[in-house]
Amino acid sequence: xxxxxxxxxxxxxxxxxxxxxxxxxxxxxxxxxxxxxxxxxxxxxxxxxxxxxxxxxxxxxxxxxxxxxxxxxxxxxxxxxxxxxxxxxxxxxxxxxxxxxxxxxxxxxxxxxxxxx
Length: 117
What we know:
The protein is α+β, with helices and mostly antiparallel strands and 117 residues long. It has a single domain, classed as Sandwich (Hypothetical Protein Aq_1857, Chain: A), CATH 2.60.300. Helix content is 18%, strand content 41%. The protein has helices at residues 15-28, 76-82; strands spanning 4-5, 11-14, 33-40, 46-53, 63-67, 70-74, 85-90, 97-101, 107-108, 114-116. Strand 1 and strand 2 form a beta hairpin. It starts with a strand and ends with a strand.
């Protein structure tokens, strides 16, 4: 597992996650940032959300974390639930994809995409 980059940030990204996100961003063909958040739902009560977004949609109260030429955005309400979370990526055939390690989660579902706090 790679080390999280710049641990003073509210959302931590491993080098593997950043590399994969940069590849996905290039495929989109335009300058985008990544919005990470939570919403109600999922097997454990809350589920993670993650999507590319145009930088012009960043709101004044959003937290913005710079990772070189890549930005991660999070709204303040979501950040209450995921502050200190580490986002990793695995290309394993079984169980691969983005993985969330959330220190605020009391319980996490088996798939790792939802949690309760």
